Description:
single chain, mainly beta, Immunoglobulin-like, six-stranded mixed sheet, 11% helix, elongated
Amino acid sequence: MRIDLLQLSVLLATTLPALAGCQSRKPQMSNGHGPAQYVCDGQKVQVTATAISPELLYICDDNTHKITWQFDASVQGVSIEFKPDYPFNGPPKTIVSKPGDDHVDSPPIPKKSQLMLYKYFITITSTSGQTTVDPHVLSGGSY
Length: 143
């Protein structure tokens, strides 16, 4: 199929705004940080016995926003380890929930001069055993 320049322009003009609208923006005023005036908030990750959602998230790097891992009723605890790079201030440490907790929070992410992708491992202990997942956090590139 052959597409001329005009058709390509129309396709891009209609598709790109639709794709941009698919991000997790909230209907509130932007603080002017991030790509396309992305609304900076803390991020929540839902944790079940066998998975997490989302597996990739963006968090603004302004030293105030955190990640909260929220557990469902089957999760007894989690252990979260960032490798090889640690996105938070201070020496690298494993984030571990306490017995009876229904969530655990990260420290805030400090400003970075460039966009960074951080890999982490989350070990989920549940009523059905242990599962390890290896998601990612995208941060940095402050405006």
